[in-house]
Amino acid sequence: MDRIDASDYHDIVHAEEPRVSPDDERVAFVRREPDDEESYGATIHVVPVGGDEPTQFTVSEGVDGQPRWSPDGDRLAFASTRGESDRQQLWILPTTGGEARRVTGVVGGIADLEWSPDGSRLLFTQQVAAEDRETRRDYAVDPDFDPEEPDPRVVDRMVYRAATEYFDGRRSHVYVLDVEAALEADDEVLHGEVGDLDEENDENDANDENDESDPVDPDDHPITRLTDGDEDYIAPTWGDDGTVYYASKTAEEDEHPDDSLTYELYEHDLESGEATAFTETTGWVDSLEATADGRVAFPYTPEENASMRQTEITVHDREDGTEVTPTEPLDRTVGHNCAFRLDPAGESLYFTTPDEGSRVLWTVPIDGSDDPARIYGEGVTIEDFSVGENAIAYVQSEWDHPGDVFLSTRGGNEVTRLTRVNDDYLSDRAVRQPEEIRFESDGTEIQGWVLTPPEFDADATDEEYPLVVEIHGGPHAQWTTAGTMWHEFQTLAAEGYVVFWCNPRGSTGYGEDHATAIERDWGEVTLTDVLAGVEAVCERDYVDEDEQYVTGGSFGGFMTAWTVAHTDRFEAAVSQRGVYDLTSFYGSTDAFKLVEGDFDTTPWEEPEFLWEQSPVAHVDEVDTPTLVLHSDRDYRTPANTAELFYIGLQKHGVDTRLVRYPREGHELSRSGEPGHVVDRLERIVRWFDGYSDYTEAPPALERDRNAGLSSAQEDDGGEE
């Protein structure tokens, strides 16, 4: 059997976004895989529930996503970049055969796609600036249109960038597309100039000698914008055919909306065009679910110390104004990559939560008349799911595969695996099963896992292996035996390392008390738990306790830096996309509420305290050779704090190197350019190998920059 390798990432297929057809006979899903060093391809496939092979439904041009069945199952709507550079447009494909038709040419892309209950309209959002709305580029835009980069960039928002992009005045707005009108319209209507609603501007446009054709009347356009103004309107969903619900942040008179955790929920009547705010929630709203009879489900997180608290699902009844929280009896959070859906009848709520090293599926009556019941998910990670009339489809990963589409009954029984997208790849790869362990730390039971190299033989008592300790991000997240870390864990084991990871206090999946145990103390509490696990693992004869290494990303990067500043037990470390100075992080991230929630303070209130809680304050205590990896466009944990930590390491004579990844953001390890994902893994292994007695490799600092890496085949220019 071949060993798993970092470069195998190019061969791994990702199954995403499963959607059950209305007749429960088919499941549509997205198949995403690397195209080359810099990009991915994604196509929509459909698999019958009877067990036949999936069929590719969309052509391999661009990146497809958001597959959505029409209520009668005759059409499949999806978003795609085909024919565009990066701008996703809306396409509709007959499911009985025929070509897909592009039905939008908008400036802001397509998100939050959803059919109306009668199938006559499609709901979506796009990110647009005021100028886009004024010129109707949010209705139609020339495909060659390329907005100018602001020069200078003028900022008046508190949060003005996220992911890898600056907002530059763009806001999320809600739109409705008339499907039949769009399918019957010609290209001039869908992709041509749309007139301004202002009569004076219309008259000026009509008299413009440079106009080659009259602008399209927006009143006759298939697209209608439902929202306007300098706010973000998000998470739209249908109630009945004439009602749309959505959310928008609100704030007190002296408060900036970006500083608020309060959202107003709106009911938008399509016939009158009136929007009515009907309730508020706090926390982070990323989706809503609604029934035709006026019940709206939405996430709720208590505002006090919100970043540590559990997210519940609350249901508001528009008929009588009452609210219930059906998830409240459950001591688990519907947050951090979790989702919730209503069944087609609108009577049951389905949702996922982290749960002791798994991400599992629950159901509860929407009226809260019974407690939540766990129906599926032992030992698996459910990435996404869809609820049909009688079936549930989900993408799940397990220790032996990185993810496939599965189907079960609504009760979680009769589970069928519908796809095996990586069977060819896995057929000749040695995949090891992690061993679960439980250990005690400071009076708390902690769950962890140990993964051994492929050649490990429990009976060979004279064999020893070096140990790599992985620390997860968040901090309020959890690790499993699968998910996005599957390839990394298996790669490190294949390179000859025993790999250990755990869910220390602060993690989700073990109740709110476990998650809030690190309040005002990220470093010491987490390190106590991690080292307790390391001690337990090092009691095993096959682990060489003299050769230990540590790495982690995001909060795991924080903890890697904190660890090497507070113990010398590790031979080398790799700190990735970390937070190293809480004050600088607070002033440069889109997630400053994390500091306020977890530490209950701000830099102005307790500057000395936040400094002492920052790894960079203790950099003078670091002796461990430490590689620092970061992305140039990481606007969640901006690179300025990594630079400060790196300079501190250099000033104190520590073996170090800073590697910066252009074009990448905080999701580098999960969805970065394929070449960068591979390079990151190879650099981690090379850094550890250079300080290990189990290899003959010299330290990375004594080698050419790219020696032994896939990137060695590329241009070796540039400073690091």
From TrEMBL:
Pfam families: PD40, Peptidase_S9
One GO BP: proteolysis
Region described as Disordered: 1-25, 132-152, 193-233, 697-720
Acidic residues: compositionally biased ranges: 195-217
UniProt entry keywords in alphabetical sequence: Aminopeptidase, Hydrolase, Protease, Serine protease
InterPro entries: 6-blade_b-propeller_TolB-like, AB_hydrolase_fold, Peptidase_S9_cat, WD40
GO molecular function, one term: serine-type endopeptidase activity
Peptidase S9 prolyl oligopeptidase catalytic domain boundaries: 487-691
Keyword match Hydrolase: yes
Family to which this protein belongs: Belongs to the peptidase S9C family.
Name of the protein described by the UniProt record: Dipeptidyl aminopeptidase/acylaminoacyl peptidase
Provenance organism: Natronobacterium haloterrestre (Halobiforma haloterrestris)
